[in-house]
Amino acid sequence: MSLRNAVAHRNLLYLLTLKELRTRYRKSVLGWTWSLLNPLSQMLIFSFLFLVVFKAEPPIGDPSGLQAFPLYFLAGLLPFQFFSISVTTAMGVVEGNASLIKKVSFPHEHLVWSVVLAQVITLLIEIAVLAIALLLAGSMVLPWLVVVLPLIGLLMLFTTGLALALSAANVFFRDINYLWGIAAQLLFYASPIIYTPDVIDIDALRWFTSWGPTGAFVRAFHEVLYDNRMPSPERWGLLVVYSVGLFAFGSWFFGRLSPKFAEEM
Amino acid sequence: MSAEHATTALTVDGVSKTFKVHQERANSLKQYLAARGRNRYEEFYALRDVSFEVRDGEAFGVIGHNGSGKSTLLKCMAGILQPNTGSVTVHRRMSALLELGAGFHPELSGRDNVFLNAAILGMSRPEIARRFDQIVDFSGLEQFIDTPVKTYSSGMYVRLAFAVAINVDPEMLLIDEILAVGDIAFQQKCMEKFAQFREEGRTLVLVTHDMGSIRNFCDRAIWLDHGNVAGEGSPTELVDLYTESMLSEDDSEPAADGARRGSGEIKVDRVEMIVGDQPTLRVQTGDTVTFRLHYSTSEPVKTPVFAVEIGRLGAATITAPSTRDAELVPDVVSGSGVLDVTMDRIALLPGPHVLHTEVTDFGRQHNYDHIQNALRFDVIAGDSNEVNGLVTTRPQWSLEQRG
């Protein structure tokens, strides 16, 4: 339903996405550079902590043979950040367009979709920059970029699903916004971005970090970009289940609640 | 499409809409959980079993006072609110003008906003591209179209927004109030556009409390009162009924609330308005009206002048005739009596009116008695369809077409 709607109103979707992109860095001197500076600064901070403070051993890419913590970190951080920022922004955009929702009848889910689309463009640029860094580090990552694309596609479905569900719920209870802030942090540390899953002793936790929803995505990106190998069919299967499941739920949930937005806002 | 639908643009069938009036609204999860199971709100009926049909190509009006449910009905028709029961079926491509420029982004240029706003209103990209010049031309903002709209004046802002909204090419247009935007010239343009709309056989639904635009514009109307349909029919009849009901609501405070001044040798004790031998407080344009002043004196008064002054409530004086103008000044008045002033085919146009009375000496310097608001009365529509201005001049039009 949501997908068909999106196709029917693809012009609106296109223009909302464009607006999202054009207005994102208005009034900032560095503008779009910020979308790269942010992950780079995080990379520096966590690399310092990992390599200098904790003197940990960087994971070795198998079979790429790569051993560089900053690259490992970015390969996991970029998709995770796409996910968490999209959900946060989507909630804000739905909330911020209250006047529009109250005065005009239009498919509300396009607000959420446009946020995810705008964010995915940022992600693609970031991945391109990372690919250059990987090439410079001597890893032949280019053929693997083909595998990254369907992975990004699944991540988009997954992200849109959660963004739809939470932004709809947030219209009714503004707590969702704050709860998500905490949940996003928890998920960040529960995903193997600043560590590798094998350092964890607790079985359930280790399982979650590599097979839980966000962990499974982060591991898949590690495997493709850092290790240069195809994720296992089990992982692909699980990612499809997570993405399609969450997307279906989110669309259904949003569709149920959106007719009541105008009244509630 | 069935034959019966071929002439129906929109069907509203048994629509009811309630709102929850929360004593303490659960805005957070905690309040929600705490309030669970307890009934913390009352239901308020904004619309109750409203049904009507809008036919193709007609201009349909919805009237009602503030809080009668007009806006809720419009939002239900526009698909912004969902009715609790009943249904709204739209058979035509519809565009609703509830607020101009909803969705304009201040940082984006006029051009970008035109595209975005038109897309929100449901237009496809090639359609917008095709109409873009027309939109900009209509707005008269060619020079500013590439600057961000945050630099626009509020007038420019609504002009651009209106230009987009009116050019989205709907088969049916819902309008909340006739939008008074821009200067006279721009309003003229808007009116022409609406007229063109009607000529092209498109459907208009107009929601307003301005009786003038309902009469001028609509073929048919409904009257909403406290969420119920109180009447449906020709706008002229309905507007009269509506106006009467509005007036009867404040019949409780009819006459003199007026301040009185003057030396008091002669006083106006009572003022009546008489139409067709009956005292009344309501008169139709074109009626013959008599104002009857009951006066009394405390001592004989030489050459007093009586005057009445009629004005629209809260506005200018319309007329102020006196017995001196009429060269009817008695040498002396004593005791008590009645003075009638009769006006044939009264030219006042509908609205609330007031009458002040004044008794002075012949030179009109000394005031014996002056009563501000001695009488409040209402004029309702009669033999004239005019709605603008204070009086009708009973104009005779003639048109001679050459060639």
What does this structure look like?
The complex is a heterodimer of chains A (265) and B (403). Chain A is an all-alpha fold. Helices cover 76% and strands 0% of the residues of chain A. Chain A has helices at residues 2-8, 10-24, 33-53, 69-96, 98-103, 109-136, 145-172, 175-189, 203-211, 213-227, 233-257, 261-264. In chain A, helix 10 (213-227) packs across helix 11. The longest helix of chain A is centred in the N-terminal third of the chain and has 28 residues, at 69-96. Chain B has 403 residues and is an alpha+beta fold. In chain B, strands 5-6-7-3-8-9 form a 6-stranded mixed β-sheet, with helices on both faces. In chain B, strands 10, 13, 16, 17, 20 and 21 form a 6-stranded mixed β-sheet that branches. In chain B, strands 12-11-14-19 form a 4-stranded antiparallel β-sheet, with no helix packed on it. Chain B is elongated, with a radius of gyration of 28 Å. Residues 1-5 and 250-256 of chain B have low confidence and may be disordered. At the A-B interface, helix 2 and helix 5 of A face helix 1 and helix 3 of B.
The rounded Rg of chain A comes to 19 Å
Coarse structural class of chain A? mainly alpha
SSE succession of chain B: EHEEHEEHHHEHEHEEHEEEEEEEEEEEE
As an assembly, this protein is heterodimer
End-to-end distance of chain B = 44 Å
Strand content of chain B: 25-35%
The number of helices of chain B is 8
Helical content class of chain B: 10-25%
Task: Count the beta strands of chain B.
Answer: 21
**Helix-strand makeup class of chain B:** alpha+beta
The coarse overall form of chain B would be elongated
Ranges of chain B with pLDDT <50 over ≥5 residues? 1-5, 250-256
